[in-house]
Each structure stands twice: as structure tokens, then as C-alpha cells.
Specification:
By secondary structure, this protein is α/β, with parallel strands linked by helices. It has one domain: 3-Layer(aba) Sandwich (Arginase, Chain A). It is 36% helix and 16% strand. Strand 7, helix 5 and strand 8 form a beta-alpha-beta unit. Helix 2 packs across helix 3. It is globular, with a radius of gyration of 17 Å. The termini are close together.
Length: 273
């Protein structure tokens, strides 16, 4: 069974722009699609600092609710839509558990998302989700990330605005990376790496700031020197042709009030899993 899952969690970035972005995706692109939506609070007074994370309690509660919805419906394939990029944690945690660790995660993102709470200068959770999935959640999020990812299951793609602490973790944990230039020129290396890992199932985390902002400015944290949509979609098609995709997550959309061909193609990609 395939499931379309909307998780408009926004507290990771403490900005409701990604909540409104998820709502616009619902209104424009999902009006004829059956999907399940995870409830989120809109209160702005729940962002107190706890465990070195702003809004920790509401974030944990919402992610537990999202994971419960996924476990209840038990999809084999999952197209998830956010929300802030940390809203992908329940989807990835669910898939890694469902497939007994037989999963690789391709993390397309201009940013690292690899800080621990103590390393973060902002204490905003959207800078931490990849690290939380990679055996760094500790007891604070163990109810969600029951089976952490190993570094060998994870590839970071398109990063160009990472903190020193994130680069250091990439080095010490031997995390595979691919720079934007390599993604543009040699997308087949993603396919080759997946096959070399020996894992059979793939989840693609797509933060829209992977794209070149001159072509796609509709994301709250744009970073220059990004990837063209043509190059990105070429890579996605290649992965779909040669690998078994069980999850696709689309995050960090800023509403623009109109239907976009690029968004339409990404939504269609997710719906066609």
C-alpha cells in the first residue's frame, strides 16, 4: 500500500511559512488525492528551550502522533510532504523500522541538518534532523527513532552551507557526500553508491533549497550556487529507474500563490512511487 502523508510541522524553524507552504500544496496539488494529515499546533507560545531545542516538547509530541498514524496505516511506500525538514523524521524512522534497517536515505539539502543540540547556535530543530536519525537522538527522541540509521545508510547531496561542526561530523563518521557540481555532472554516482551499499530500499529526502534560487526562490532558506531543476529531476528519474524507492519526502516550501510546473513534476514523482 502507498500512502500520501502531509505533516505540516513548522516549529523546527519557528516560522509558520512552511506550515502555509504545506497548506498551499494541499490546496493546489492534492485536491484530487487521498491523503492523511498529521495534526500540528499553531501556537507560538510553545517554543521554550528544552534539551537545548526550541519547542522540544511540542515537536516530540507531534512526531509521536505522526509516527502513530504511520504505524496504524502501515504503508509499504510513503510520499510525505511538509512542513519544515525535520518533519521527515517520523517517515524515515517508520521506513527504517518497517524494512528492518534495509534502507538508504538520500538527503538532498543545501544545509547539513547535522548539528547536535549542543552544537547548534540557533537551537532550532530544523538544523538537527539528520543527526537525530543518525544515532544521536539519545533518550530524548528514542520513542520516535527506535532504530537509528548507520552512517553507511546515509548520503548527503548538494550541501553548500554547512557549519564547521557538521563538516567535522561528516569526516569523523565517514558520511558519504556529493557536491552540487557532482550531482549535476555525474548523477549516476548516486545509483552506483546505492548498489554498493547492498541495501535494497531508498528514501529520498528533498529539501527544496537544493535548487538554484534564481530558478526556484520558493523556499525560506535559499542558498546560491544550487542545482538546476533539470539536473535534479534527471537524478531522480535515474534513481527511480535503477533502484527501489519506498519513500519520498518534500519539504521547506514557501507559498507563492500559484501553480508551478516544477512543483507539479515533483508532486507527480511522489505520487507515482
Amino acid at each position: 500500500m502507498k500512502m500520501v502523508f502531509v505533516n505540516p510541522q513548522w516549529q523546527g524553524g519557528a516560522d509558520k511559512v512552511t506550515l502555509r507552504g504545506a497548506e498551499e500544496i494541499e490546496e493546489i496539488y492534492l485536491n484530487n488525492v487521498n491523503y492523511i494529515k498529521s495534526p500540528v499546533s499553531e501556537r507560538t507560545d510553545e517554543l521554550d528551550l528544552e534539551h537545548d531545542v526550541k519547542g522540544f516538547s511540542v515537536l516530540k509530541r507531534q512526531m509521536e502522533q505522526a509516527l502513530a498514524l504511520l504505524n496504524r496505516n502501515a504503508p509499504q511506500k510513503l510520499f510525505s510532504i511538509g512542513g519544515s525538514c525535520d518533519a521527515d523524521i517520523p517517515a524515515i524512522a517508520y521506513l527504517n523500522q518497517k524494512y528492518s534497517g534495509d534502507l538508504v536515505v538520500l538527503w538532498f539539502d543545501a544545509h547539513g541538518d547535522l548539528n547536535t543540540p549542543s552544537e547548534s547556535s540557533t537551537k532550532l530543530f530544523y538544523g538537527m534532523p539528520a543527526r537525530m536519525l543518525l544515532d544521536e537522538s539519545g533518550q530524548s527522541l528514542s520513542s520516535i527513532v527506535e532504530r537509528p540509521l548507520y552512517s553507511e545508510q546515509f548520503m548527503h547531496i548538494g550541501g553548500r552551507d554547512l557549519d564547521d561542526s557538521e563538516w567535522e561530523h561528516i569526516k569523523t563518521a565517514s558520511i558519504k557526500t556529493m557536491a552540487p557540481k557532482a550531482l549535476i555532472e555525474q548523477p549516476e554516482h548516486i545509483r552506483d553508491w546505492i548498489h554498493l551499499t547492498g541495501y535494497n530500499n531508498v528514501h529520498i529526502h528533498m529539501d527544496l533549497d537544493i535548487l538554484e534560487p534564481n530558478e526556484f526562490p520558493h523556499t525560506p532558506l535559499s542558498v546560491g550556487n544550487g542545482v538546476s531543476f533539470h539536473s535534479l529531476f534527471t537524478a531522480l528519474q535515474l534513481i527511480r529507474e535503477h533502484c527501489h524507492i519506498v519513500g519520498f519526502g518534500l519539504y521547506q516550501y514557501q507559498p507563492c500563490g500559484m501553480r508551478l510546473q516544477m512543483m507539479e513534476k515533483l508532486i507527480e514523482f511522489g505520487l507515482s512511487l
